[in-house]
Amino acid sequence: MEGTELDGGPEPRERCSFAIDVEHARRFTELRRQQRLAMAEWVAETVEESNGGISRQEARLEARRRRAELWPTLDQYVEAAIRRRLAEDDLAGPWEPLTEAEEEAGTLAGRGIGKNYPGFLITRTYQLPVSLIKELRTAALRVSEGPLEELEELGLLYATLEYTLEEYEKRNELVDLVMSAPRIVRQALERYGPWPPDEHPPSSPLAVHTATVAAAMASPEE
Fold first, then answer.
1. What is the DSSP string of 115-141?
2. What's the pLDDT band for 6 if we cut at 50, 70, 90?
3. Which of these, 39, 124, 116, 121, lies nearest to 77 by C-alpha position?
4. What is the pLDDT of residues 151-191, one digit of tens each?
5. Coil, helix or strand for 6?
6. Backbone torsions φ then ψ of 123, nearest 5 degrees
7. How far apart are alpha carbons 59 and 62 in whole angstroms?
8. What value does the mean pLDDT take over residues 86-97?
9. Are the C-beta atoms of residues 214 and 200 closer than 8 Å to each other?
10. CB contact set of 83 (below 8 Å; sequence gap of 6+)
11. 98 contacts 137 by C-beta, under 8 angstroms
């Protein structure tokens, strides 16, 4: 995850890049297309219903003022999803604040240790409040400290073909507990993203459950 501080309203915001599920990205692209159409229709209807009292430019300005209410930006969807994920018991803390060195390290780009992702990933960038980014990075680091330390103590920190079966299983068990910031964001979108009931990302719990039920129903009775 990379960040560059920007000015963004009452609270500074950061441009943050995350590797997200391609299904998330596809859905967001479609959502943005639908919103553009909805805004254009709203402007046209507002002008028509005003009987000349409102110009097209005035209607467009009003649509822009009401966008957060009627057509939330993708940044808003991502922010809301992350806040809900961070409020869950396993990430809610309270956590020891990051040190200056930890904060600096948290802004570095690079691939860290983590669970293999079952789907396909694509990088997308969103502007989020600085305070939320700090909360996200703090939770990710503090939750991961224990399993990362144990991986290092056991000599299982790096992937290799030389592990025994027991070591391999233990490593997978510990890696599953490591929560990078991008992984938290992916979970947030899986659980709280704007998905219709019949369109869940393939890695989401609901999608996995649905697939399991479907497979069970398709299996012939013994």
1. PPPSS-EEEEEEEEEHHHHHHHHHHHH
2. very low
3. 124
4. 999 988 888 888 889 998 999 899 989 999 999 999 999 88
5. strand
6. -85, 130
7. 5
8. 92
9. no
10. 132
11. yes
Helix (H) or strand (E) run with residue 16 in it: strand 13-21
β-pair partners for 185: none
Dist. CA 152–CA 171, nearest whole Å: 10
Q: What digits encode the pLDDT tens for the residues 29-86?
A: 999 999 999 999 999 999 999 888 899 999 999 998 988 888 889 999 999 999 999 9
Q: What are the tokens at 61?
A: 């300005």
Beta pairing class for 3-6 and 13-21: antiparallel
**What is the token pair recorded at 184?**
């938290």
Report the C-alpha dihedral over residues 123, 126, 131, 132, rounded to 10 degrees: -60
pTM above 0.70, yes or no: yes
At 174, the amino acid letter reads L
Query: Which residues, 6+ apart, have CB-to-CB distance to 149 below 8 Å?
Result: none
Give the 3-state DSSP-derived string for 72-96, with helices as H, strands as E and coil as C.
Answer: CCHHHHHHHHHHHHHCCCCCCCCCC
Percent of all residues in the chain with a pLDDT value above 90, rounded to a whole number = 47
